[in-house]
Input
Amino acid sequence: MGQLITCTSVSNYPLTRGKQYQLIVHDAERNQVRVRADHGRSRWFPAYCFDLSGGAVPVLDAWRFDDPVIDALNGRDETYNWVDLILKFDDGTQRWCQLMTPDYLKALIDNPIEPMFCAKNAIIVRDLATATVEQVLLHLDQQGELIEFSLPFEQDE
Output
């Protein structure tokens, strides 16, 4: 049995993030690995798509809005709002990020007192419809970027 390596980013390849694959060949000079992909055929992939030590990779398991998407009192809805999300990963960790629509961001930076916005964990999305949020989170998770765009969540005791 060969060395097991873990997929960290699927990019556009027939791989599953978090799944371990048996390493067939590692070409360090070309920075590529050969594994049997999800479609059953062995092929070359960029080594950056894998943790060559075979370590566990947290994969998004569930998420929830931490704020209401629709706040009629303040005129906020799926197309004009800023909300927090709580992310739960299959290793038990929780993280959080902020989602904001372009219209809401424009209103923030149009403020003459503070004409800017910056946050390490903010993601700008077309709208806050559940289907859109699902699509965005799945894409970021499959690319191995969701951890980078979120922060550890520590629940108040």
